[in-house]
Specification:
heterodimer; A: mainly beta; seven-stranded mixed beta sheet; 49% strand; globular; B: mainly beta; five-stranded antiparallel beta sheet; 11 strands
Amino acid sequence: NAGVTQTPKFQVLKTGQSMTLQCAQDMNHNSMYWYRQDPGMGLRLIYYSASEGTTDKGEVPNGYNVSRLNKREFSLRLESAAPSQTSVYFCASSVTTSGGAGTQYFGPGTRLTVL
Amino acid sequence: GQSLEQPSEVTAVEGAIVQINCTYQTSGFYGLSWYQQHDGGAPTFLSYNALDGLEETGRFSSFLSRSDSYGYLLLQELQMKDSASYFCAVSSAAGNKLTFGGGTRVLVKP
């Protein structure tokens, strides 16, 4: 089991360029998430997908779009990158429960720099 | 919305005990989780409390008081490898959506 995988690991963009961050999980989890983490800060939720076919905005969705391609894959797209989007991006997945068990499994992260 | 407060940094020596407090404000509270993150790494799950009381997992314990909107993570017999950031997170809706605190950086000295 690879768990949660993310590509690429590192990326440098120029302002205005676009890119898609890929995430896949092999744990048969229903829910998937995208977070960003700025230096010395906690994680902030960008978008999440509670189940295949649904996506919802998190705390900081502006400037991002997502696609839940199938149960395994959840991608994050930056249409026109800005320096404020320089951050580390983490994808996570979890089993969906009505009780909100809160156990999320994280990928290794993508370190994005926007010049 | 939700908000969480935890200390920014704690320093202790090997073998000591450290308590990281977390206070939260949220509606529709489900539970409090703790995650560990080493520098350059990904967060990893440590513990989850949905009910009041203490949960023990080896050298780490986590406590929750729902009436006080307060929890803590207790790290015992500190080891150098415990140097990391520790995040509390509240889940407040179905679907395991989490809101994270800003993190507490723990530095363990020899």
